[in-house]
Structures are given as structure tokens and as C-alpha cells.
Design a protein that fits this description.
The structure is a single chain. By secondary structure, the protein is of the alpha/beta class. The chain is 48% helix and 9% strand. The protein contains 24 helices and 13 strands. The longest helix is centred in the middle third of the chain and has 28 residues.
Length: 584
């Protein structure tokens, strides 16, 4: 039984061999069925195909002979050999001349369309059972060819490699682990928390690794307050957090013991909040990846696949996704063991792999002298935070609310009706249908009339409403993004704003800031400057704002030794005026 939609297989049908074509109404073809469907019996199918040819398979065929003509010729002459032998006697001039001129092509075409049944193989039914792809060979092939999606599908995972991951179940095992880490002189560290914000996270556990494919995970009880020790009984498989951290503290604060990790600044901040000053930071795989290629992604999953050829577990693999995702603090130690252990293990493997590359690429001194020493500096800044005058922001919020109400009233007056000013669709209807203003641009996806800033700025030259919309949008963004949002981010314990500074995000090498972005507080308008004034100093202290003047151009002058550029800086000229003078 052959299942195929390929007409070439009709040539194989004979007694004991049938063909099923799932496209042809689920029809089974025997010899009679082939003759009825194709016009000739199976024995003549190859000869018909040889005459007709097949452009998709690069089979030339005989020019001027189509399917109908080929069937007629086979029905009369019986075979291609007989047809070619009597080609001179064929009455149809077009067929006769074509066959005489294309004899060799006809024979070659027959050879090409013939399915060979004399291949020396001795198959068994078992040999045809689908065994699945060879993951190892597929990964090797797709890696060499650069097929990134397929590499991700076939990379080795925790299910395909031998590992030694286990839980630390009691204080005795914890003490043994600490002794092993100290004796090793170097270990990878991964801090496990309930949320991704270092300043708000609660410790769930600590994973450590001293060799490839090996790690230990210490699950910790939740933080307890005096008088609530009875809660510890609810976590029989975890080690008391206070006791464990007290045991760990000397090791973590020992500068002679090297610590390796991925995003160690996060670990530093979390540990600092628990009274531990992490020392001995020797390698951060996230920063190494960033220096080697600032444009790439630097998550542990991405760089493990890139440099180790290993597909790491993700949070979704462990917690699930979306609304049904289970928080880490609700998962059992056994449920997170492989995930957290793997992260410590991979950080150590990456350190061994990336450290030599930093040297080869000439980046080691930059890494050792600038990036790594910056980790504790940034961690200290994040922990310190900055005070915020929430009362001043509240006053601004009321002021902005009144201004927005005034703008909204005038907008409704000009539009002739009330509508949702923040809705691009409703605004477009007002501008282009009700007020008949010209539609200057279409949106990319919906191809509806655009109400972008550029469009409104041009329309504002001829009508008051677009200008008011722009002003309303600016006021609304200030109020929602800064004035109303910043007070909500004040830490409940420190009463300060704590941002996170990112070393491995901006491709320019600069820092970026997130949650909240304190590098994006507006300054160009008086309202923006008032928002900045809400960031205040402690009593009897001041805030200092310092900035390099045209640092990139100064670096350019140094590296290029351009005499005009250097002289402009030395004489205090406006460098942009001088540049314009040189050009024009």
C-alpha cells in the first residue's frame, strides 16, 4: 500500500501493490484504476511521463507532445522504444519531427522518471519505525548553518545531560557545604527571590556551584519577626533563614573567596538588605556578555545557548505563564531545585568560557578595572535611594488637574462635542470627519488617519484644536507618568525612591535606569523642572549635578589628534559653531 499524491508512483502499481491518493477523494488505485485515471496501464506510465516531461523535476520530455498526445501514442505503439523505432512513419508531422530530433532526450527523460526498484537493500518492517531526529546531530548541523530557531529546539537541556543537583536539608549539611565552598576558594552564587525588584524582594533560597553540572540549593524559611517563630513549623523542608544567613555571612563577606554569578548587582542589593556585604566579586557573566557584544541579549538563557550550546530552563518552565503562573514563594524546594541549581551551574560554566574571550578581545582590563568595580558602587546607590517631596508632587497634581480640565473644556468647545481626548480613533473622527481637516498620514497597521505628533504639529499651523491636543497630551503625560506615579514608588520601609541602574542594556556603554527611570525626568519645561525639584536632599545635605561637557567629542579629539578640534576645546570655542564654520 503506497500513500502518495505523486503521479509518478502510478508506475509501481501492479498485482499486490495499490496506491492511495488522499487528495483524490480518498481513492485507492489498482491497475484498472490507474488506466482509468491516467489513460494508460501502470506499465506505460513511465513512457508517458518521459514524453510529457516535468518542468518541476527538470525532466525535459519531448517538445510538442502533451499528456493527451502521449497517451494516444502509447495506446497505439505500446512502448517508447517501439515509438522511437517507428518515428519516421508517424503520420503527424509535428510528432514525427520532434521525436526524430529528441530521441536521446526522450530516453534520458525516461531514465529520470523511472523509480528504481533494484536498489540492493534488505529492509525489515522495524527499520521503518520512526525513531525521531538525532538531537545531537541536528544541533551540530543547525549550529554550523546558523539556524537559530532550530538550534534552540535541539540544544541540550537538563533532560539530556547528567547533573548533580541536590537540596541542603539541614544545618549540618549547610555547614558541610560552607566548608566545601571555602576550600574551593571560588564558587558561583545565585540568589532566589519572590519578585524581580531587588529592593522589594524577599529571600527564598541560595544556590551555589563549585564545578560543572554540580550545584547545591539551600531553601530558606520566610523572614520571621520576633514572636512568630511558630511559623517555621509550616516549612519543614526549609532551613531557618536567620540561622542560615548568619552561617553564610563570613563566607560571603570574605574578599579572598571569589564569587561568580549572573547579574551580581541584584544579589549584592538583596544581601545588603539582609545585613550581608557581598565581597570578592570576581566574574559576572552578564557583564562579560555585554562587553563582548553590546547589541546581543544578555539573559542567562540567551548567553548559555550562544556560548555553551545549552538550552536553560526558564521561569515559565517552572512557574507556568500568564495569570496562572505560580509565585516562587509558593513552590516547593523540589519544584525549583533544578531551575535554581542550573542557574548557579551555568554562571560558573560561562565564567570559564567567557574569561579567556575577554582577554583575546582585549577587554579584560576594561572588565576588571571598570565594570566589575562598578557593581558595588551602583548597588550602594540603589540601596541609598533618593528622598522625594511627595507633598510638592501632590500640589503639582492638583495644579495639572485644573489645567487639564481647562484644556478639555476648550477642546470640547472647538470640537463641538465631548469625546475621549486620549482616544486616537475618536480624535481622528473629530479632526478629519467633523472639522474636515486634511488627513496627512495613515497609520501602519490599520491604515486609518494618523493623529501622531508630527501630524498634529502641522495641523496646528492652521487650527487651534490640534495645538490644544498636543498641550493636553504633554500635561497628561507629566501627570500620569511622573507626578501621580512617582509617589506610589516610594519604598514602604526607607520612604525613598530606589531605581535600578542597568550596566548591560545601552549599546553605547552608558548606564540606563528603570523602575523608575530616573534618567528621563523632564527638564525642558518649567513644569518638568518642578518635578525635578521634588527630588530632595536629606537635612543639611545638598544634591550636586555634574556632567562632562561634550565628552564624546573630547574623546574623539584625543583619539584622532585633529588639530582644529583640539584647538577649539583649548580655546573654549563652541565646538558646533567651529564645526559649522569649517564645513561652510
Amino acid at each position: 500500500l503506497i500513500v502518495s499524491v505523486d503521479k509518478d508512483f502510478f508506475q509501481l502499481v501492479r498485482k499486490g501493490v495499490r496506491l492511495y491518493d488522499p487528495r483524490d477523494s480518498g481513492t485507492w488505485f489498482d491497475e484498472a484504476g490507474v488506466a482509468k485515471k491516467f489513460g494508460v496501464p501502470p506499465a506505460q506510465v513511465v513512457d508517458v511521463l518521459a514524453l510529457v516531461g516535468d518542468a518541476s523535476d527538470n525532466v525535459a520530455g519531448v517538445p510538442g507532445i502533451g499528456k493527451k498526445g502521449a497517451v494516444q501514442l502509447m495506446s497505439k505503439y505500446g512502448s517508447l522504444d517501439a515509438l522511437l523505432e517507428k518515428a519516421e512513419t508517424i503520420p503527424q508531422k509535428r510528432y514525427r519531427e520532434s521525436l526524430l530530433a529528441s530521441k536521446d532526450i526522450a530516453l534520458q527523460s525516461r531514465n529520470l522518471v523511472t523509480i528504481r526498484t533494484d536498489v540492493p537493500i534488505t529492509p525489515t518492517l522495524e527499520s521503518f519505525l520512526h525513531q525521531g531526529p538525532s538531537r545531537e546531530r541536528c544541533y551540530d548541523l543547525f549550529s554550523r548553518l546558523g539556524f537559530r530557531t532550530l538550534v534552540n529546539d535541539y540544544a541540550p537541556t537538563e533532560n539530556s545531560v547528567q547533573t548533580n543537583y541536590s537540596l541542603v536539608k539541614n544545618i549540618e549539611e549547610l555547614d558541610q557545604l560552607i566548608d566545601q565552598l571555602r576550600a574551593a576558594g571560588k564558587f558561583a552564587l545565585h540568589i532566589v527571590t519572590d519578585v524581580p525588584s531587588a529592593m522589594r524582594a524577599h529571600l527564598i533560597g541560595v544556590a551555589c556551584s563549585i564545578s560543572n553540572r554540580q550545584a547545591r540549593y539551600i531553601p530558606l524559611t520566610p523572614e520571621t519577626k520576633p514572636g512568630s517563630e511558630d511559623l517555621l513549623a509550616q516549612h519543614p523542608n526549609k532551613i531557618d533563614q536567620g540561622i542560615a544567613l548568619a552561617r553564610f555571612k563570613p563566607l560571603l563577606e570574605d574578599n579572598a573567596i571569589q564569587k561568580v554569578g549572573h547579574d551580581l548587582k541584584f544579589d549584592t542589593v538583596v544581601l545588603e538588605r539582609h545585613g550581608i556585604h557581598l565581597a570578592g566579586i570576581s566574574f559576572d557573566s552578564m557583564l562579560a556578555s555585554y562587553l563582548l557584544d553590546a547589541r546581543a541579549k544578555h539573559s542567562l538563557e540567551d548567553i548559555s545557548l550562544e556560548y555553551l550550546g545549552y538550552k536553560a530552563l526558564t521561569e515559565e518552565d517552572v512557574r507556568g505563564s500568564g495569570a496562572r503562573a505560580i509565585p516562587f514563594n509558593q513552590l516547593t524546594p523540589d519544584a525549583v531545585l533544578r531551575f535554581v541549581s542550573e542557574r548557579a551551574d551555568l554562571a560558573l560554566q560561562l565564567a570559564h568560557h567567557l574569561a579567556p574571550r575577554l582577554v583575546t578581545e582585549g577587554l579584560d582590563s576594561l572588565y576588571r578595572e571598570m565594570e566589575l568595580p562598578l557593581i558595588p558602587v551602583l548597588a550602594a546607590i540603589e540601596c541609598a535611594g533618593v528622598p522625594l517631596d511627595s507633598q510638592a508632587l501632590m500640589t503639582q497634581s492638583k495644579y495639572l488637574h485644573k489645567k487639564l480640565e481647562k484644556h478639555t473644556g476648550r477642546i470640547y468647545e472647538l470640537a463641538g462635542c465631548e469625546f475621549n481626548v486620549n482616544s486616537p480613533k475618536q480624535l481622528a473622527d473629530i479632526l478629519f470627519n467633523r472639522l474636515k481637516l486634511p488627513s496627512l498620514k495613515k497609520t501602519g497597521k490599520t491604515r486609518s488617519a494618523s493623529t501622531s505628533v508630527e501630524v498634529l504639529e502641522e495641523l496646528a499651523l492652521s487650527h487651534e484644536l490640534p495645538q490644544l491636543i498636543l498641550e493636553w497630551r504633554g500635561l497628561h503625560k507629566l501627570k500620569s507618568t511622573y507626578v501621580d506615579a512617582l509617589p506610589l514608588l516610594i519604598h514602604p520601609d526607607t520612604r525613598r525612591i530606589h531605581t535600578s541602574f542597568n550596566q548591560a542594556v545601552a549599546t553605547t556603554g552608558r548606564l540606563s535606569s528603570s523602575e523608575p527611570n530616573l534618567q528621563n525626568i523632564p527638564i525642558r519645561t518649567e513644569l518638568g523642572r518642578q518635578i525635578r525639584r521634588a527630588f530632595v536632599a536629606d537635612s543639611k545635605k545638598v544634591l550636586i549635578s555634574a556632567d562632562y561637557s561634550q565628552i564624546e567629542l573630547r574623546v574623539l579629539a584625543h583619539l584622532s589628534n585633529d588639530e582644529t578640534l583640539i584647538e577649539a576645546f583649548r580655546s573654549g570655542e563652541d565646538i558646533h559653531n567651529r564645526t559649522a564654520m569649517q564645513i561652510f
